[in-house]
Write a structure and sequence with these properties.
- There is one protein chain.
- By secondary structure, the protein is mostly beta strands.
- The chain has two domains: 281 residues, Pectate Lyase C-like; 43 residues, no CATH class.
- The chain has two helices and 29 strands.
- The chain has a 19-stranded parallel beta sheet that branches. A seven-stranded mixed beta sheet has the order 7-8-11-13-16-19-23, with no helix packed on it. A three-stranded antiparallel beta sheet has the order 27-28-29, with no helix packed on it.
- The longest helix is centred in the first third of the chain and has 23 residues.
Length: 350
Amino acid sequence: MKRLVSLCLAVLLLAGATCARADAAVREIYDVDGLRAMANDPAGHYRLMNDIDMGGVDWTPIAFSGELDGGGHCLYNLTVTKPGPDTRVTRDGNKKEYDTTLAGLFSALENASVHDLRLTGAYVNVENDTHCFAALLAGYVNQSVVSAVSVQGRVRMTSHGVMVGVGGLAGFGFGSFDRCDAKIELVFEDQNFDFRCEEFMGGVLACGIAEINACMIDIDGYASCHGYVHNGGLVGMSYHCGTKNTGKPVTNNIIEGRIRFFEDNPDRRAYCEATIGEPLTKPSKTGSNHAAFKSDETKKYDVVLLPEQCAEPSYEETVVPPEGQRWGYTMHRCGGCGYLWTDTYTPPAP
């Protein structure tokens, strides 16, 4: 009997020690320095412990292959103005390879997990002189799982490349998106007049294959392309891109909004649909997707399509303070065309 009790105690102590070690492996993040430190061990397990103000931070996108538990917390006022230092190979519909730069909170998510995280007032604004994908969360995903992630903000790209795209959550790649939501403004401006670009835009993913379940997307998109357009409320182009990936289920999603675009190209394709723009690799299952979405094509190619309609917008600023559980922010409204955008978010009082 004593031996049995001793054995039980030993097992309990071992289990406790194992749990303690596992818990100790989770690195807690409280501030911007803690976020930056993820780059030193990109395969680690991290947990946000509070909301973090990213305002005024010159953020460099991180390549990440671990787990980030957002704990329901928010990164707010994130600004990204340049891709990360690393590149990845992307492929177009003809399997042609491109060495591509990547921009977002993360440059790349590879075999990673990101969950229970919010991005509020995020702004990714890049001008690329080569091939590039940009999104609020990650420019590139590979076999990664994103769940219960909410993003709100803007992505703008002025492009001089060929293989290019903007997404709400992710740019190029393969992954899973479950119970995510995005309220996003996506703007793509093609400045490469020597070659026809391959342009991709999607509320969840610009190009690739993804399992997308129970996501809510509110998209306001603008694409000015002197090449080939692939735009979708969820995915711009669904395609295996020369990999062994197969179609994934796309179910129970809600999509609303509009993508306004032109395709200045005599070999016109002009894909733009509510769920998937061009399904070269079809989802294994589709169902219960609801869309209040407008594909808005124009044949006027001489004017770049932008949300602001004035040639020289003049903005009036209004500071909206936090109230109750509502966040505060600064609202910028153009007196001429009425276009407005928000930044400088402040959290509710504790």
